[in-house]
Amino acid sequence: MxxxxxRYWAAAKAAAGVHEEPYDAVTLADAVAAAAARxxxxxxxxxxxxxxxFLVDGDxxxxxxxxxxxxxxxxxxxxxxxxxxx
Length: 86
What we know:
Elements: E1 2-8, H1 11-16, E2 20-25, H2 28-36, H3 43-50, E3 53-56, E4 59-60, E5 76-80
Parallel strand pairs: 1-5
Antiparallel strand pairs: 1-2, 3-4, 3-5
């Protein structure tokens, strides 16, 4: 298991109710599942995060399966929901 930080932006921050929180997970899929299971998080959180893009230590995850994205010790996962505008 690796420990690090998940940072939420815009609608993801609103749905999570926090700007950032710790992760303790092996993969991005594990970290997202644990975050979704936290008390008070419902369908809106899962919907927003499900449509979001992710960066791990500044590197885009892209279309890679989240279960294949290993999280580093002390890493930062950025959750970026779709943005409108230019």
